[in-house]
Amino acid sequence: MSTIFLLLITFTTIDRIKCQTFPPEFMFGVATASYQVEGAWNYDGKGVNIWDTLTHNHPEYIKDGSNGDVAANSYFKYEEDVQLMKQLGVNFYRFSISWARILPNGHINQPVVTMFHWDLPQTLQDIGGLANIYMADIFVDYARLLLEQFGDRVKWWITFNEPAIYATGYTKAKGFAPTINSPGVGDYLVVHTIILAHAKTYHMYKENFGNSQQGKFGISFNCDWYEPKTNSTEDIETHERAMQFYVVSLSRNVCKEGDYPELVKEIIASKSLAQGFLKSRLPKFSALEVEYIKGTFDFFGLNHYTTLLVYPGQMKNQVPSLEHDHWVSTTMDPNWPGTAGETRRVVPWGIRKVLNWIKNEYGNPPLIITENGVADEGEHNDTKRIYYYTHYIDEVLRSVVEDNCNVIGYTAWSFLDNFEWTSGYTQKFGLYHKSFGIQSQSCSTHSSITSKFKNDFKFGVATAAYQVEGAWNEDGKGPNIWDTLTHNHPNYIEDRSNGDDAAKSYYKYKEDVQLIKQLGVDFYRFSISWARILPKGHINEVNQLGIDYYDKFINELLNNGIQPVVTIFHWDLPQALQDLGGLASKFFVDIFVDYARLLFAKYGDRAKN
């Protein structure tokens, strides 16, 4: 294994900053997601998830035709992974649990854990997936199993990773799993179900596990910054619409009002009626649900990558659709440094604006940056990544020291190169190569960070189950919606790949932990594969091998001084739940709560976020 000299310089510098200037309790970590690194897609009883299905049936949907069947092989190499994390020197490792590995059929018969990171068991997708409101209860069953199995050690839990991005799998027939072509309807149903599932899981945890496990509970929202293209009134109003639709419509439910913003409700209702619908395409929460949802978080999970310039839309989008509803067009300044991702540029000041916006909008809640990172094409001279992290972390530091933003942790995405969803393996986010050697680098010394974080500030890295675990149908894991999409429609993925193997983190989790340790971060944010825990998505059929995998993984993290930060759901919905309607089903909320309760029971004693 070769060492990236430049990365070691960077994290040595970060470690020095952390010790001298961050708050003592601040956490640094790294992250992955089960499908993206575990591999072992069909080993040890794992059920098929929606990404297994997608990448196997449609490798053309993936840019390079790949999948997560092997990935980083972390399922078999978790001990090596843990040693790598240990070498990094991080405090925590955020990973996701594969629902299909724990519950192959999707049902229930200091790591940071993501309960759901997009790899839904295929059997659950087959009943509608997260568009089915009844999936909320199935998720709760799955969560309950995780809590029972791991809650004694996992003290940081994330229910869902980026609900809005996961919901894009319901906007077109090719692309993100589960590839449901229902824009402006299906995606809204999914988000609605996820919000209810999260709230039910939160209450289930507090009522059944909170006193004994003393864990922290949150959800990770994707939140880019939407800067007005000009100072015109029209562009400023467009900025407000963009923030309301892309950020507030989700986070406001959980963090503040328990309901969608009035602006969003009014716009969608008006356009729905004009389009011939008898009522709004946006589902409505009852008054009781609004009160039930409000305040269901212990920390705000922020995933941030870039900044976009916004101006009024051109009304050329599909009708109905989110894009037509919000009437926002985006562009980027060509002078901003580019990345391997065509839609992302390096704009460090954007993260500081986002952090201040959240502070002002929600009363400065405790906030963990659960994902932040940059992709390249695998260059060994990794100066662009160093530039990105140096400048973004500096803006985080300024937000803490100068703006008094209550940021308590930072997670680098990603710990390992992994299966990057529809981009396959063409984009490299990892601090380590998929081969587990640190990328070798050479460059001149970069500028030191002169400002100081509080001593308790934490850094971490992140992944998601489907993106790194692999082992898509091994050890009892059930199929998730990304299994379905990548298998059935590989053409939806830029390189035609899938997460069947991904980074093989399911086998190589010990190696992963050692890599994270080498980075010197405080925590590792990962997601739990719902389909690995509950292969059919429901609480009645629990995959013990999946439970055991995350149990060993969480222990490996803690034994190496890395705090787990867990995302309960990171897009990999069990296919069995999708087949029941998925997040659009009214029953999804309770299903999610059951899933979360399981996670709390199993891991909540150790995962506190």
TrEMBL record:
Residues 1-19 form the signal peptide. Its EC number is 3.2.1.21. Pfam families: Glyco_hydro_1. Keywords: Glycoprotein, Glycosidase, Hydrolase, Signal. GO terms for molecular function: beta-glucosidase activity. It is an enzyme of class 3 (hydrolase). One of its GO terms (biological process) is carbohydrate metabolic process. The keyword Hydrolase applies. The active site is at 371 (nucleophile). It comes from the Eukaryota. Belongs to the glycosyl hydrolase 1 family. Homodimer. This is beta-glucosidase. The lineage of its organism: Eukaryota, Metazoa, Ecdysozoa, Arthropoda, Hexapoda.
